[in-house]
């Protein structure tokens, strides 16, 4: 059996993801589709809309065969680290290829870009450094450096597009770890990231869909944009949790944490660059509402995503110290599988490069302990009083 | 004008407190009654039933002329430190005497006890040390040592009684700081600390009264046990806060804090003796209810009060380090006054030994910063989103 990998958040799973899963299978010619998926906190520094078990169920119901959790240290990190963790896991589980959605839509520009940046690494980094010095955000600096290096040249990947950036980092990660995994890409269609639901499209962005849920759209209005299985799973999640995950919901606990820590300790938390701790503290004092808080903290230098990552680490209580010490994943946490996925795992058992963990209780790896902790923090934010759910929830199975 | 001092929590103010205030005035012959009162957290390690402003209003409405806040470092400490902070403040404001309620009811036994313990300090401490080694709690050890020293002798204060213990420490504090303040005591009447409301008595314990409120007793049922002003102030507090302060109410935030910190950091918080951090963490994991949590943590060695003090410091986020570094109060925070209290303060202005602070914004003293912080933490626990209330609330005035 041949496996292909994808890297996902499914926040929540919608028709765009269905398309990606379907096309990845076609492009790769694989029998089995493996998704490495973020856990309870996401790359943009947000608590997940639905927990990792619900999101795993959605994936298994719609074409994914195996779901592996991307550890917190990677899942909440900047693109290069995010990609490194994900590709390491897909390689370890024996995927022959991986397939990402991109605005670019073809793989050659990515390979060409990688070649260019590798050969001109020093110049590139110098240019980034200079751009950052002018006070702009890191992503903007990266982009300026890149544009000047390619001389706006065609044939290179357009790294102003968010999915292209991620794609580039996947390829970089694969090359750097000399993984035999073969990179593939498919064209991302429709809905830009921040589009609200557009009734004319059957693909809407995850952001738009979340928005619709938060605004109390009826499930019928959403039917056009998500597989029915996703809708049912979300309905159930909603019933059990009286809503969905969001910073709005988590803010009272976050705010209490920030005020409790005070500036002196705030700067110990990951991503809280020294100097911003007073701003964070004062913003939390003043703002009872998370949007007001973020508006006060974000700036040209610190993007919303960056601020949200700080919020995530303060919320979970992870310090620079704790997150700094990891290099590559040393385990693989199985969140769920289909019958076919199980068959693949049985067959591959001996070839899988990392211990495959099905139960939280078996997760003794220090990196895995962070995931268990992050999960308990998420549960508290959702108002789940049984924080041991992490230990009592077996991998989801879709027969 | 002559002032007498009392040390109070008023949690909440009831007929027993009215009696104490009234008798203190008679015993001392003073014109003005000054209360040093705990702020948002109390000596038994609990959030206050009503906030310090409401409790100040109750006091001013019922015979107290000036309310000074006992700083957090003393208010949440063991009896000897609690007493030291309180007596230092009463001395500094120029009280000629102070008057405490005691089971003993006369002052001579306390003075005799103080003389005995001072002259036999070394023996006494050795005996306490030995008793602690047997694994009993500190209060029990103290008592055993004391009993053996006095040979159960009459004429000494009975230090098995909680108010006698506090009284002893007031006297000890006054003597140690060579304050000219004159100690007085009145007999405490009726209601033991944990008695529920007894319909035959017009004095009920604060615990009993809180219990009645939590169980939703009608205000009419409580009328016999509290001044009408107290009832009205509590009614208003209840309306504004949708209930009262308690660990039950604060536990979700406390639990989140404990789980977020994990054992490695828990032991940094004040009163968390090394070794108990794992027990605290595991108890918080298992228990969604504060009583369950406390039951798991308390033991022969760690009394409920001791555990609740740990809870208080974890909740507010104060470390050993932060609370260790204070010796004596360096300011006096005015929470409220009557017209007569104001007259006394104007007259005494030049003689008052410490800066008198009326507005939180003027409180730059490090010890005072802790109070402001503790107050914000209390407000969050009560669900007050405007945590700057500390800065916008002027001293209460009763004309």
TrEMBL record, chains A, B:
GO biological process terms held by the UniProt record: tRNA modification
InterPro entries on file: Rossmann-like_a/b/a_fold, tRNA(Met)_cyd_acetate_ligase
Chain coiled-coil ranges: none
Binding site for ATP: 7-20, 101, 163, 188-189
Reactions performed catalytically: cytidine(34) in elongator tRNA(Met) + acetate + ATP = N(4)-acetylcytidine(34) in elongator tRNA(Met) + AMP + diphosphate
GO cellular component, one term: cytoplasm
Subcellular location: Cytoplasm
UniProt key word Lipid metabolism: no
Class of this enzyme: ligase
SUPFAM superfamilies: Nucleotidylyl transferase (SSF52374)
Keywords noted in UniProt: ATP-binding, Cytoplasm, Ligase, Nucleotide-binding, RNA-binding, Transferase, tRNA processing, tRNA-binding
Molecular-function GO term, any one: ATP binding
Enzyme Commission code(s) on record: 6.3.4.-
Highest taxon, organism lineage: Bacteria
Role this protein plays: Catalyzes the formation of N(4)-acetylcytidine (ac(4)C) at the wobble position of elongator tRNA(Met), using acetate and ATP as substrates. First activates an acetate ion to form acetyladenylate (Ac-AMP) and then transfers the acetyl group to tRNA to form ac(4)C34.
UniProt cross-references to PANTHER family, sorted A to Z: TRNA(MET) CYTIDINE ACETATE LIGASE
Family: Belongs to the TmcAL family.
Protein name: tRNA(Met) cytidine acetate ligase
């Amino acid at each position: 059996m041949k496996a292909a990998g994808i890297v996902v958040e499914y926040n929540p799973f919608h028709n765009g993801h269905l398309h990606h899963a379907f096309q990845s299978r076609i492009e790769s010619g694989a029998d089995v589709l493996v998704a490495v998926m973020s856990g309870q906190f996401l790359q943009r520094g947000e608590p997940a809309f639905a927990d990792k078990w619900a999101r795993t169920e959605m994936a298994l119901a719609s074409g994914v065969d195996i779901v592996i959790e991307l550890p917190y240290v990677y899942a909440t990190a900047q693109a290069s680290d995010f990609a490194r963790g994900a590709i390491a896991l897909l390689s370890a589980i024996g995927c022959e290829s991986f397939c990402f959605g991109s605005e670019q839509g073809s793989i050659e520009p990515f390979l060409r870009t990688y070649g260019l940046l590798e050969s001109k690494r020093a110049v590139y980094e110098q240019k980034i450094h200079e751009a950052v010095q002018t006070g702009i955000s890191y992503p903007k600096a990266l982009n300026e450096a890149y544009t000047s290096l390619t001389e706006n040249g065609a044939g290179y990947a357009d790294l102003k597009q968010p999915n292209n950036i991620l794609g580039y980092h996947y390829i970089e990660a694969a090359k750097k770890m000399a993984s035999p995994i073969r990179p593939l890409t498919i064209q991302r269609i429709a809905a830009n990231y921040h589009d609200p639901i557009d009734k004319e499209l059957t693909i809407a962005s995850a952001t738009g869909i979340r928005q619709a849920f938060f605004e109390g759209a009826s499930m019928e209005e959403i039917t056009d944009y998500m597989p029915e299985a996703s809708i049912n799973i979300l309905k159930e999640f909603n019933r059990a949790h009286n809503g969905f995950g969001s910073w709005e919901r988590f803010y009272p606990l976050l705010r209490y944490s920030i005020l409790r820590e005070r500036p002196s300790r705030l700067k110990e938390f990951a991503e809280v660059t020294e100097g911003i701790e007073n701003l964070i503290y004062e913003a939390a004092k003043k703002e009872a509402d998370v949007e007001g808080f973020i508006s006060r903290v974000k700036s040209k230098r610190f993007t919303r995503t960056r601020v949200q990552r700080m919020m995530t680490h303060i919320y979970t209580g992870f310090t620079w110290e704790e997150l700094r010490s990891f290099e590559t994943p040393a385990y693989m946490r199985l969140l769920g599988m289909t019958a076919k996925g199980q068959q693949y795992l049985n067959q591959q058992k001996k070839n899988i490069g990392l211990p495959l963990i099905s139960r939280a209780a078996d997760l003794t790896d220090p990196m895995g302990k962070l995931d268990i902790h992050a999960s308990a923090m998420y549960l508290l934010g959702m108002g789940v009083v049984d924080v041991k759910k992490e230990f009592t929830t077996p991998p989801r199975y879709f027969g």
